[in-house]
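Fold this sequence, please.
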Amino acid sequence: MMKFKLVTQTPTQRPTRRAAWFASLCIYAWLSNPTFLYAQANAPAEPAVATQAASLTAIQSTMRRAVAIPDWVKLKEIKPQKLKSVYAMSMPLFDTQIYLDKSSTVFNRHIYTATQTAMLSRVANHDIVYFPEYQTLAIHRIRIVRGEEIIDKTNSATIKLLQQEQALNSGIMTGAVNATVLVDDVRVNDELEICYSIQGDNPVFAGKYATTKIWDYAYAIGQKHLSINYPKDEFLQFRVSGPGDTNLVKQEKIDGSRKTLEWSAQQLAPIEFESDVPTEMEQFRTLQLTQYRNWQEVAKWADDLFVSKANSGLMQQLVTDISNYPDTEIRIAKALEYVQNEVRYLSLSLGESSHRPAQPDEVLKRRFGDCKDKSLLLVSILRALNIQAYPVLINSSGHSALD
């Protein structure tokens, strides 16, 4: 989780900037409550907000079934493996293959099996989350392997597209859709295979790709495979973090104008997730990929988003009112007080608005905004008062690392 901090400075000080390892960050303002996902949790409940989300028909058009598997996907080379130990539920195969071109396509092939009836609901029911505003979902195949028999469920499985907005009670709307897959007639010792791809990227990142993939999982995995195929002339770096062995086996291949990095492992034991550990304690290993070279590139990307064009009468009047206070520190406090108390928290993080803040004039007009909206508004007010102020990106997931 990324937070967004305001830094005020005297004219003789230089701006301080921090950036995250990845651009797939979530910006949070220290102007609101300390925890982003639970911001304003103790405030009065917000009324339902009408959104400009796509109609149900438009959303349904972003999901297709029985789509041919892309030619670049490796199927025969990546084979499932039986688990050497017996588990109530396990995954003989957990395969993710990423292809970068003008946009990214992420192919997933998962195989599930259960040895106990109580686990069949977890095997047969799955949620696929995507963002229809800029992504499409292709279901390639859904099938049950029962001994020597293969039962095709690609067209008969029930798939419901649900806009649940799970963080709405916290004042956050993302536009995410859950494609809930329900497969009938799944039995003990069956192997259920689901293959699907998600294509598209949030345009706010301007064509640069960054992601974090969890390596370990709550279920035992027979064969784990992750690969990324991208133009060999493009920059890409990665790192592995988390507990245990982070020296994952990597293979590197070049085929014509493209390069592929692959990681694989066999017989991964399940990881029991503990909900009450400190946030800075990593419980799973993660593999992080990014086309950003360094933090400076991430900071430059964010700088381009946080450009204020405030010139409305509302802004001018607000600046005039605050400028009537004679002391600079009081002016800063009054600006902060206004943003905190007069602009309620509500995040419409749809499309580019996930990271691009709304313009201060719009925030003043509607009198609501999220962390980044409030941050840009406060920075704009202070700058109009000739007080230097800069937004700063910080990695706040590990609270012990913060001053």
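The helical segments are 56-60, 120-124, 295-305, 313-323, 328-342, 360-366, 371-384. Residues 173 and 348 are 5 Å apart (CA to CA).
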